[in-house]
Amino acid sequence: MDFLFSPEEEAFREEVADFLEKEGPKEWHKKKVSFFDMSGQENWIAVHRDMSQKLGARGWLSLHWPKEYGGQELSPFYRLILREELAKHHCPGYHSLSVDFVAPAILLKGSEELKKRHLPGIASGKVMWCEGLSEPGHGSDMAALETYAKEDGDSYVVNGQKIWTTYAHFADWMFLLARTDRQAQPNYRGLTFFLVDMKTPGITVNPIINMAGHHDFNEVFFDDVRIPKENIVDSVNRGWYVTMAVLDSERTSDLGYAIASTLLDDIVAGAREMGMLDSGDKVRMAELIAECEVARLTHYHVTYMQAQGKDTSYEAAMCKLLGFESIQHVAEFGLKVFRNYGLLSDTSPMAPLYGRISSCYLRSFGHSMEAGTSEIDRDIIAQRGLGLPRLR
Amino acid sequence: MDFALNEQQEMMQTLARDFLSDEYNDKMLKTTVEDETGNMPELWQKLAEVNLTGLAIPEEYGGVGDFLDLIVVLEEMGRACFISPYFTGVVLGASVIIETGSEEQKQKYLPAIAEGKSIVTLALTEETGNYTPDAVSLKAELKGSNYVLNGRKLFVPDALSADYIICATRTKEGITLFIIDINIDGFSITPLKTVSGDKQCEVCLNDIEVGPDSLLGEAGTGWTYLEKVLQKANVARCAEMVGLSQQALNISLDYARERMAFGHPIGAFQSIQHRCADMLMDVDGSRFLTYQAAWRINECLSAAREAAIAKAWVSQASKRVMNSAHQIHGAIGFTQDHILHYYTKKARFNEFSFGDAAFHLEKIGTQ
Ligand SMILES: Cc1cc2nc3c(=O)[nH]c(=O)nc-3n(C[C@H](O)[C@H](O)[C@H](O)COP(=O)(O)OP(=O)(O)OC[C@H]3O[C@@H](n4cnc5c(N)ncnc54)[C@H](O)[C@@H]3O)c2cc1C
Question: Model pTM?
Answer without folding.
Answer: 0.91
